[in-house]
Structure formats: C-alpha cells, structure tokens
Automatic annotation (TrEMBL):
Protein known as: YtkA-like domain-containing protein
Species the sequence originates in: Paenibacillus rhizovicinus
UniProt keyword Signal present: yes
Residues making up the signal peptide according to the UniProt record: 1-18
Keywords of this entry: Plasmid, Signal
Amino acid sequence: MKKVLVVVLCLMALSVAAAYWKTSGDSAAPALHTEFEQADIRIDVQTESTDLKPMHEAHFDVTLTDSSGKRLTASKVEMTYAMPRMFCGQFNADVKQVTQGTYLAVGVPVMEGYWEAKITVVVNENRLTIKHPFRVT
Ligand SMILES: [Cu+2]
C-alpha cells in the first residue's frame, strides 16, 4: 500500500514537472500566429516557418478580413522588424499582395534572437498596427 502511494506521488510530481516544462517552453517561444481586430478589420499575421535562420529570408503571411471573414483590400501594407532592446536597427520588409486580402512580407533578419515585426495596414482610411514576435535561431 505504501509503495503504491509513493508511485502515485512520483507520477503526480512528474506530471506537474511536465506541465511546468511545457508552459515555460511555450512562453519562451513566440507564437507563430498573431491576430488583431479593430474597427471591423481583422489582421492575421503568420510566420511561415518555425526554422528561421540569420541572413536568410523570413516569410510572413498577412491576411486582412472583416469580422465576417470577407477579404479586405488595403491601400497600404507595411512591415518593419527589429530586435527589442537591441541596437541592430530597424529594417523594412518587402510586402507584396498575393491575392485580394492576402499579402506576403519578406525580411532578412541579420542575427539570432528575439525579433518583433510591426505591420501597419490602411483599410478604408483606418490605420491599424499589429506587433508580431518571432524568433531566429
Ligand atoms: Cu540584435
């Protein structure tokens, strides 16, 4: 009976450790996906790959819809990216429209670490900005 209790306690300790490890791992890695909605305009930004390398192209998909899911056309889509709390500069991504409401932003992060992309769109004279974190390893 005592042995069973020890085994059960060990399993509980393991599962707590596993859960802790999982959540701490999740919070350390930026989400690949960021969403923001304001004034019936929804911006969705997605990092295309989990495996971004320094001095290689990083691709980001930007999708613009209204709250019912209809694709929106922007008069302007811009993306800059930089490393917060570092001085390696702010860079401009190349942004092109793929189809109505979908855009591809391409940048070349210069070094490993934690980056933040800032996407600004103008739709029907509304200007929205969304921050999208990503990691280069
Ligand atoms: Cu840097």
